[in-house]
Amino acid sequence: MNRKLVIPLVLICLSLGACSSPRPAAELTAPAASQVEYLIGPGDVLQVFVWRNPELSVTVPVRPDGKISTPLVEDMQAVGKTPSQLARDMEQALSRFVKSPKVNIIVEEFVGNFSEQIRVVGKAAEPKAIPYRRNMTLLDVMIEVGGLAPGAAGNRARIIRRQNGEQVELKVRVDRLLNDGDISQNVMMLPGDVLLIPESRL
Question: Helix H segments across 60-111?
């Protein structure tokens, strides 16, 4: 990460108490990001824990076809489900072999569905797609991509979002967030958001 970016980011985090409870801009409050549940995607790595059955507890990747295979359960569809939904489906499948099975699913490595990712394009240090995490903010995204690239017009950045069935553009001032500590710009991100960072006109 650019050394010039590190100090402002640290100051922001300290002033926020580890960057907790950011206040989103008014136009970004719906839908609430805290209500969004993570959906499992191809390439995720899942820890399947079956209570009192260590021989059935494994860590497995989600295959490109969207399924997983575990002891006693083959080709269980995982993609598109929340971890809790997959756990209930695993319990139902295992009930043929185990009395009252209790399953927990933990996502150890996140990739996520394409529609669940946040994509950063334009003048970021490392433009890329990022797996969505609950309560992810614009600051979290900028840390993931290493900040702004030289020549970026951070204060003209936009978030492209699907909202109520329509595509909307939301203006964000990334320069003010990173360099001035303007926490009003630290908006909540949602799955499928695209952050566009244009090049400076100068």
Answer: 83-94
